[in-house]
Specification:
The chain contains four helices and eight strands; from the N terminus they run H-E-E-H-E-E-H-E-H-E-E-E. A five-stranded antiparallel sheet has the order 3-4-2-5-7, with helices on one face. The protein has a three-stranded antiparallel sheet with strand order 1-8-6.
């Protein structure tokens, strides 16, 4: 009886061993890429406001008065006050460095007023023209970027093209190797390159030499490149 039990145990072990050692299927792994250059559809206007006074209270009050002045200008241009965001607020001593060391000379208070809106050449020209009418020069910059909606829509198209690119390359390689592609085993999504930069900055200073109507200014956003990469693995035979 003991001998019979030993034989059955060995037979059982042989069967399980064969199940665990199933031969793996051959595969082909190909990276697909697609890219496109698109024009940004959004604009970001930043107005830098600052005040230098001998005491903090006066500097803060002057900053508030200047801010209200710019808010009125933006309102006249068609923006709502809720569209304007305050960023990068700072307050610090104004230090002047001389031969015998730094000397405190009042306080500097500053902040940025930021407005984001859909790119429009006429709107930008109106902004530049209106800022040129202000008695004191306006320190501002204009940047262009891609909206989330445009980026998502473009990414969907690029991903489909990246898969198609991977399939074309896999077909070419399979024919050259004399094998046949069957089913897709895996799809690995991800960019091998760093994420593209969506923000471009064009710094400008309004002054009395700027045309009153702003018509001679041209704001042309630079095209930006978006890229998608995908790796597709096919089973071959």
């Amino acid at each position: 009886m003991k001998k019979l039990l030993l034989i059955l145990a060995l037979a059982s072990g042989t069967v399980y061993g064969q199940t665990d050692q199933q031969p793996s299927k051959s595969t082909i792994s190909v990276n697909g890429t697609s890219k496109v250059s698109i024009i940004p559809d959004m604009t970001e206007l930043n107005i830098h406001v600052s005040s230098l006074k001998m005491n903090m209270a006066d500097a803060t009050k002057t900053l508030g008065d200047q801010t209200q002045k710019y808010l009125k200008i933006l309102k006249d241009l068609g923006f709502k006050e809720t569209d304007v965001k305050t960023t990068h607020f700072s307050a610090s001593k104004n230090r002047i460095y001389r031969e015998n060391g730094p000397v405190d000379s009042g306080y500097v208070v500053s902040q940025n007023l930021t407005v984001k809106f859909a790119y429009n050449q006429v709107t930008l020209q109106k902004i530049a023209a209106r800022f040129s009418e202000v008695k004191d020069p306006v320190d501002f910059n204009i940047g262009f970027y891609i909206s989330d909606q445009l980026r998502d829509n473009t990414a969907a198209e690029l991903q489909a093209k990246a898969v198609a690119d991977a399939r074309m390359k896999a077909n070419n390689l399979s024919k050259a190797a004399g094998v046949k592609m069957t089913t897709v085993k895996a799809i690995v999504y991800g960019n091998d390159v760093s994420n593209p930069v969506y923000y471009k900055d064009v710094r400008m200073f309004a002054n009395t030499e700027m045309a009153a109507d702003g018509a001679n200014l041209s704001f042309a956003p630079q095209e930006m490149e978006l890229q998608e990469n995908v790796t597709v693995v096919w089973v071959i035979e």
